Amino acid sequence: MRGGRTGWIPRRQCLAALSRVILKGESLTVALADETRDLPAREAAWSRALAYATVRWYIRLEAMVEGMLERPLKPRDAVIRVLLCQGLAEIFHFGTPDHAAVRETAELARTVQRPGSVGLVNALLRRALREREELTVVMDRSPVSRHACPSWLIAGIRDAFPDQWEAVLQASTDPAPMTLRVNLARISREELRERLMQQGCAAEPHPLVPCALTLAEPMDVQDLPGFAEGLVSVQDAAAQWAALLLAPRAGDRVLDACAAPGGKTGHLLECAGGELDLLALDVDGGRLGLVRDNLRRLGYPVRMQIGDLADPEVWWDGQPFDAILLDVPCSATGVIRRHPDIKLLRRPGDIADLAVRQGELLTAAWGLLRSGGRLLYATCSLLRAENEAVVQAWLAGNPNARAVALDFPGGIDREVGRAIALGTSGMDGFFYALLERQD
Fold first, then answer.
1. What does the pLDDT look like over 186-215, one tens digit per residue?
2. Which of 137, 170, 140 is nearest to 154 (CA)?
3. Cβ-count burial of 199 within 10 angstroms (0-12 exposed, 13-18 middle, 19+ buried)?
4. pLDDT of residue 5
5. Bridge pairing between strands 253-256 and 321-327
6. Distance CA 38, CA 25 (A)
7. Is 2's pLDDT higher than 90?
8. Spatial CA neighbour of 375 closest among 304, 409, 325, 429
9. What is the phi/psi pair of residue 379, to 5°?
10. So which residues are the catalytic ones?
């Protein structure tokens, strides 16, 4: 996409979305949905891809900008800093021809009522082109700028994965693969793979997860063969371990305690051929609609309830559950490559608050479980403070709970539970701990 109308409009909408994220602290997903809504599909996809590249590398790009500026930008020109980072992302991480990246980015300064900044933007981006190799060397000296990750998060990842932290951080800046979950109750993985290949879509069986296929190239979900019929869903391979580890049996009364958007809910049902008495609970009624849509496509009936797990008197019928999936709200650092704005929006103090909430939810869920029942505590966090630390502290006050040893490929044993490092066989980062009630 070069020059003219096709060039600057998607760049302008990208900048609008980035400004909402970086200057106002909004979600990248929400900002992009709003700002690219009226663009043609091809331009919208281009704009989203540039926004993701910019946010993914923003900490590094901003450090580059600050190092090249002769004097700091004024607060009223904060949008120009964002624009400069967007332009540098095109040059260093997006593959746009150099002249187009410089020209279009500089001209974009006029559209944000900063015509006086056109020269600055043009000069700084041209300098970046001339000094590309030197700037790369300088940025690679520090882990923060090398991996475009805040120091507090690097420290947490290094603590959790002392032998793998560099590989985890490297994976955090790579685009995530598109992984499929095959409904093995209705079709074999190899059969679905053959259907994909017949449409010219290459896919490989995931080496660690028996129901997972990884696509060589992402594709529109609606074009997936068997998607509309419920034969396949999109779900990261690490997330697929949730249902496999809880392993509900036909006839079990099961609670998916934080169910939206419903990927794991559907997988639980698939594992038991749909023969579960399953309640999908979520505090957000709007997001619970996503669960309904997912299960309608899969063809499984299920009960759904809007409610706060921590307040069961409002929604619970008093009948205990055989199995509970507790996928708690967390920092989502394990899915940071899918949501790179986490690196910009999340703060160190958030982790302690999340850990308190996670412990409260674990206590609430435990009170709904029958004797002999199983509870799977799950997060998509990389941090010990949200994972084994929460479960260990909770176990100390609950002698009727026993941690069940987990053994699945790709996992790393913790004092309690098992973690998956981001990037392991292409997977997101996850943590699982399986608890059994013994009264």
1. 999 999 999 999 999 999 999 999 999 999
2. 170
3. exposed
4. 40
5. parallel
6. 23
7. no
8. 325
9. -140, 160
10. 380
CB 299 within 8 A of CB 320: no
Q: Are 191 and 225 in contact (CB under 8 A)?
A: no
* DSSP reduced 3-state for 253: strand
Q: Which residues, 6+ apart, have CB-to-CB distance to 265 below 8 Å? A: 256, 259, 278, 280, 291, 294, 295, 302
Directed axis angle between helix 98-111 and helix 118-130, to 10°? Answer: 160
DSSP letter at 247 equals: -
Sign of the Cα pseudo-torsion (336, 337, 338, 340, in order): positive
- Dihedrals phi, psi of 58, to nearest 5 degrees: -60, -40
Q: Which residue has the tokens 């997977």?
A: 427
Half-sphere exposure of 318 (CA within 13 A, CB side): 0
**Can you give the pTM of this predicted structure?**
0.94
Q: What is the pLDDT of residues 38-62, one digit of tens each?
A: 999 999 999 999 999 999 999 999 9
Q: Cα separations (Å) of 359 from 30, 181, 364, 391, 394?
A: 29, 30, 9, 8, 7
Q: Are 256 and 279 in contact (CB under 8 A)?
A: yes
Relative orientation angle of helices 41-56 and 78-93, to the nearest 10 degrees = 100
Strand runs (DSSP E) across 266-404, as ranges? 277-282, 303-306, 321-327, 369-379, 401-404
Q: Which amino acid does the sequence have at 87? A: G
Q: Comparing 264 with 117, which gets the higher pLDDT?
A: 264
**Mean pLDDT on 78-101:** 94
Contact present, 224 and 232 (Cβ < 8 Å): yes
Cα–Cα distances in angstroms (integers) from residue 183 to residues 213, 229, 258, 265, 273, in the given order: 11, 10, 22, 13, 9
Q: Which domains does the chain carry? A: 4-146 (1.10.940.10), 179-234 (3.30.70.1170), 241-437 (3.40.50.150)
Answer whether 287's CB lies under 8 Å from 296's CB: no
Task: Find where tokens 């926004």 sit.
Answer: 51
